[in-house]
Amino acid sequence: MTKTKIDVTLSKTKKEKPQSDQLEFGRVFTDHMFVMDYSPTKGWHDARIVPYEPISLSPASMVFHYGQTVFEGLKAYRTQDDKVLLFRPEKNMHRLNLSNERLCIPQIDGEFVIEALKQLVSIEKEWIPTAEGTSLYIRPFIIPTEYFLGVAPSNFYRFMIILSPVGSYYKEGIHPVKIFVENHYVRAVDGGTGKAKTGANYASSLKAQEEAAKKGYSQVLWLDGVEKKYIEEVGSMNIFFKISGEVVTPELNGSILEGVTRNSIIELLKSWDIPVSERKISMEEVYETYKKGKLEEVFGTGTAAVISPVGEFLYNEQKMVINDGLTGELSKKLYDTLSGIQRGTMQDPFNWVVDVN
Amino acid sequence: MTKTKIDVTLSKTKKEKPQSDQLEFGRVFTDHMFVMDYSPTKGWHDARIVPYEPISLSPASMVFHYGQTVFEGLKAYRTQDDKVLLFRPEKNMHRLNLSNERLCIPQIDGEFVIEALKQLVSIEKEWIPTAEGTSLYIRPFIIPTEYFLGVAPSNFYRFMIILSPVGSYYKEGIHPVKIFVENHYVRAVDGGTGKAKTGANYASSLKAQEEAAKKGYSQVLWLDGVEKKYIEEVGSMNIFFKISGEVVTPELNGSILEGVTRNSIIELLKSWDIPVSERKISMEEVYETYKKGKLEEVFGTGTAAVISPVGEFLYNEQKMVINDGLTGELSKKLYDTLSGIQRGTMQDPFNWVVDVN
């Protein structure tokens, strides 16, 4: 890994920034991006911040054919006193390297990339929205760039970071969603790529998502690929169940993504002395506890929404309405606390937040 | 689907063509390519043959993030009397639409694309090598082009066909390969994308391939993702076993690719009155027949190699040497016959071959 200075070329023109109240997710991008390239002889090299511009690749570039890609997602927040905060970026870099390992992509130097990211975010500081619930979404990703149609790991790669100002995930506050329990399509399986943040898992999820939407459900609950019995994830989030006062989340089994928010929620619950366990949990077990009136709250966790309460499941044609379709007390407290820490409005006893300056 | 005439822009310069005896697989591309675009309002439109040139896309283009891609592979052959032949291209178009359906990509008009393909191949006729074993590899593929980081099917796509002159797959004639039976990594699972020709299946296979290569094995035998017991594919080919005179291949179960060569081999065997069955077959069963001396031949089938004999398996640390590591009689006959039909040197009683003119 070449640790040379990052070459900076500033854009001559500045794009118009969108209004804070009109921000969507992932449609508008800032003026600059970070780029570095990999070759077998030079390793990762030519690290640079340049104007945001199109990528030009041969149609035979491997990225268009064999899906050997990885990515990450995290956010920068701008505080009332104008500081810029990142949330546990070292976790994203660690996971990026786990994904790289699974996809045969060379490891990156996480510390160096965090430095690059800080520099990029500082340059784009004016792009970080300040309104309640808004943030700057950060998308690091790696694509294979060799021009070759053989099925083999690419010899050349490009690493990029692009930035997008995003609005509040819940325009009218935190809002429970309706979930379809998927028992036909599979997102990932043991021995597959489920643990990696790679295009494959998202490509395979689209069809189920589309069919659930037709039935009026906004997300899909994924069961394990082997027995179609044990719960894995919800949409592209991790999932938690509050059952008789205890919080349960599926254990990391190789096909579940190791969510940064998932890990933070577990730490928060432990610090509050709320019992939390990571273990196998079947949909049948959830249904049984529901029938006994012991299923108190359900919520998904992820970078985009932080906490996404589940108001209803459709499971084998059975509707299960959770907590009267309302946001639970614990879900709300977790959302408020974690968002508060991320935005610098609440104390951070865990040292999770990183000041960009 | 707009069935307007295909707009043709010829290249002003011509690239130098490689020597027939120096051809590799998928490294050199011809002077032109076919392109058409999809939008929700226009459908597939702007069909055109243009000079081969780079694709320019925003870094936020969905193809770099969520793997929503599909592709096909087929070949054109140039005969001794200078005709250009395609092999069952309608099968590839049918499968492309099956892949599209699984990946939420709009259907293409197969007949129209075959016409476009014929026109493109005619323009590039001089690029089709004539030496024994050489051909023109054809790669149709579709990529999502919307600039959006949300996880959803793209609203915009690009369909392209690129062409690459390729050498004989076996430089020194048909040659048996050594195969590692994979019992950790999984290529695809029921409910996943195994049946589709999409990047996801290839991305997930790279790691196993890399580890097998380190052990001295050139390909991986994939077992089913649920029980890791039943045989699915070998490398990126379908697989056949000759056991006591009967030929057995895994049945199409949703996670196995519906190979065009696979289907053609089954038809050929039937026409020769050789018993052939498509059924579940476990690696344990193969091992038992091997121990009893009843495993006569094993071979993979695919567009690249046509027939690829298996000389050895490594299964749970046990070496299984098949037919003394030599190419079997039936494997050889199937290779000679199918290659002969494809190249126009043998009769084609099935009407598989399509003359481009």
Structure report:
Chains A, B: This is Branched-chain-amino-acid aminotransferase. Chains A, B: Its EC number is 2.6.1.42. Chains A, B: Keywords: Amino-acid biosynthesis, Aminotransferase, Branched-chain amino acid biosynthesis, Pyridoxal phosphate, Transferase. The structure is a homodimer of 357-residue chains. With 357 residues, the first copy, chain A, is an alpha+beta fold. The first copy, chain A, folds into two domains: 7-166, Aminotransferase class 4, branched-chain amino acid transferase, N-terminal domain (D-amino Acid Aminotransferase, Chain A, domain 1), CATH 3.30.470.10; 177-342, D-amino Acid Aminotransferase, Chain A, domain 2 (Alpha-Beta Barrel), CATH 3.20.10.10. Helices cover 22% and strands 29% of the residues of chain A. The first copy, chain A, has seven helices and 19 strands. The first copy, chain A, has helices spanning 89-102, 110-123, 199-203, 206-214, 260-271, 283-291, 329-343; strands at 7-8, 32-39, 43-51, 55-57, 70-71, 74-78, 84-87, 135-144, 157-166, 177-181, 219-223, 231-234, 238-243, 246-249, 276-278, 295-302, 306-315, 318-321, 353-355. In chain A, strands 1, 2, 3, 5, 6, 7, 8, 9 and 19 form a nine-stranded mixed sheet that branches. In chain A, a hairpin with a 3-residue loop joins strand 2 and strand 3 (43-51). In chain A, helix 1 packs across helix 2 (110-123). The mean pLDDT of chain A is 95. Chains A and B meet through strand 4, strand 8, strand 9, helix 3 and helix 4 of A and strand 4, strand 8, strand 9 and helix 3 of B.
